[in-house]
Amino acid sequence: MSINRINKIILCSKVELKSIEKMEFYTSTANGVVKDFCEYFLPTLKYNNFHVTYTFNTVQDHEKIILWPRNKDIYTINLNLYKYSHQLYNRILFLDSKFSESQS
Predict the structure, then answer these.
(1) DSSP conformation class of 75
(2) What is the pLDDT along the chain (104 residues), one digit of tens a residue?
(3) What is residue 77's DSSP assignment?
(4) How far apart are CA 75 and CA 69, in angstroms?
(5) Which of 13, 48, 63, 85 could make an SS bond with 79 (beta carbons 3.0 to 4.6 A apart)?
(6) Would you say which domain of life the source belongs to (predicted)?
């Protein structure tokens, strides 16, 4: 299977966030991981999760993403730990599944 087919399958699949209500991005405009995430993964998340609120804030240090699940906890993702955008995407999906398991 070609890499283009694999990319198309991943990028066109329906992904629903079951427990995350809000995502806040605190990052610099030069962060390549967040740029790629916003270009490749965020449109799919926005399209399939219209109820989730996304906000972007510009900072110079301590780049992070704050997730707000329905159980009113707060989870912070340190962006310095991620080298590629798909790692960040996988982490958000993993945390969403963990949040939804804890609610059940």
Answers:
(1) E
(2) 677 776 666 666 778 889 999 999 999 988 999 999 999 889 888 888 889 999 999 998 899 999 999 888 899 999 999 999 999 999 999 999 998 887 76
(3) E
(4) 8
(5) 63
(6) Eukaryota
Angstrom distance (rounded) from CA 20 to CA 39: 20
CA-to-CA dists, residue 76 to 11, 14, 38, 66, angstroms: 25, 25, 18, 5
CATH tag for 16-103 (out of 3.40.30.10, 3.40.50.150, 3.30.420.140, 1.10.3720.10) = 3.40.30.10
Q: Give CA–CA dist 50/71, Å, rounded.
A: 19
Q: How far apart are CA 94 and CA 72, in angstroms?
A: 18
